[in-house]
Design brief:
- The protein is an alpha/beta fold and 428 residues long.
- The protein folds into three domains: 11-256, Metallo-dependent phosphatases (Purple Acid Phosphatase, chain A, domain 2, 4-Layer Sandwich); 259-350, no CATH class; 355-428, no CATH class.
- It is 32% helix and 23% strand.
- It has helices at 33-56, 76-91, 191-196, 275-293, 310-314, 319-328, 353-358, 362-375, 379-388, 393-401, 405-424; strands at 11-16, 61-65, 95-99, 119-121, 128-134, 137-144, 168-174, 176-177, 188-189, 201-205, 211-215, 219-222, 238-244, 250-256, 260-268, 297-305, 338-345.
- Strands 4-3-2-1-13-14 form a six-stranded mixed β-sheet, with helices on one face. A six-stranded mixed β-sheet has the order 5-6-7-10-12-11, with no helix packed on it. A three-stranded parallel β-sheet has the order 15-16-17.
- Helix 1 (33-56) runs parallel beside helix 2 and helix 8 packs antiparallel against helix 11 (405-424).
- The N and C termini lie far apart (91 Å).
- 35% of the residues are buried.
- It binds manganese (II) ion.
- Manganese (II) ion is lined by residues 18, 67, 103, 206, 208.
Length: 428
Amino acid sequence: MQIVMTASQPFSFIHCADLHLDSPFEGLHALEPQIAATLRDATFKAFDQVIDLAIDTQVDFVIIAGDVYDGADRSLRAQLRFREALRRAVAAGIECFVAHGNHDPLSGWEASLKMPEGVHRFGGQQVEHLIVKRGSEPLAEIYGISYPVREVRYNLASQFQRQPGQSFHIGVLHCNVGGDPTHDNYAPCTLTDLIDSGMDYWALGHIHNPKVIRDREPCVIYPGNTQGRNVREAGPRGCYLVRVDENRRLQTKFVATDVVRWSTQEVNIADLRDIDELLEVLAEIVEETRKTADGRAAILRLALIGRGELHRQLRHLDPDRDLALPLREGELNRDDFVWVESVQNRTRPPVDIARKRQVQDFIGDFLRAAEALRQDQQPTARLHKLFAARSEHTLIARHLKQLAQNDWSVLLDDAETLGLDLLLGDQE
Ligand SMILES: [Mn+2]
């Protein structure tokens, strides 16, 4: 007897995650009300765009792999907007599959809102297994589990096991594959765990940068969040549109859904002659950012770096008042605004610091002390100790705790530059 593999029907779906609806966008101070309002609405609009895409491309289903809400005690506004978007999808005949993650575990507060029929939310007890059909024929089998509580420290991926069935098998999970240090190590697992499960596609969530971990057998994707929430989440954000053909070959495509794009740019001052030239370059970057944002709004952080004559002039300026403010002019009146969040001055004087460090004088002593700190095995601990001995410590201790490892090295560079500026005066 000959076993004939019947060709299956082609289908398509959207995979998104980390919507973080109603994210508060912390760390933005003194924002214009119009910008703040655009940001407040951005996570909702981004998810609306995911659903628009689902409807326009007539996909068969939508998968949301955790962190629908930003906080465990999700706002009612977020729940209503989420349900409204899902309702639009199911009204168009598109089923929705939702898993919850560490930001929105099942233990969090939730109003008793009824979800529309066609929306399936995975429970937190065990991996659920569902079959999506077109007519009577199965298109795909979907497996998923939600976080019962915020901190899931055990391996959930190893609980996924392919069931017999000819169709396409998809695992939905909020997890940290391979211990990515930039995100909390929740539901830790390895790529081998994912491969061993027998899935054809892993619809993951948790890591906010879009990332294709493996492109086939199984395809493993983090779509990233649908809308960046701060300057550390710069660049395009969106979802994956996945098409599966009759031979179960995959075609995946990233589609941007962000409403406001975050951007950071460094500007080297080495070759700039004067402030006029600097302003020109900054204005060009603003227009470049607008072009790249492709009709969206953008928030831009600029950092001036490098060594040059301009450093001395910059010392006399207030970067926010003198550089950022003029760049914001006229931006409030447009939908595709580019809002310069800040201009940070990290430039250094046009002197050969390495050479000065060799000289046996007071400036040399100062630079060697800074370098010794930089080379220290535990510079953070040393700096902490130095700060703790100072009278200002009671005032700033709280803020020091929040500093990351690389913030300390930036602080050290800034302090060295400031000290050098003061010691040299305008003499060189
Ligand atoms: Mn998240």
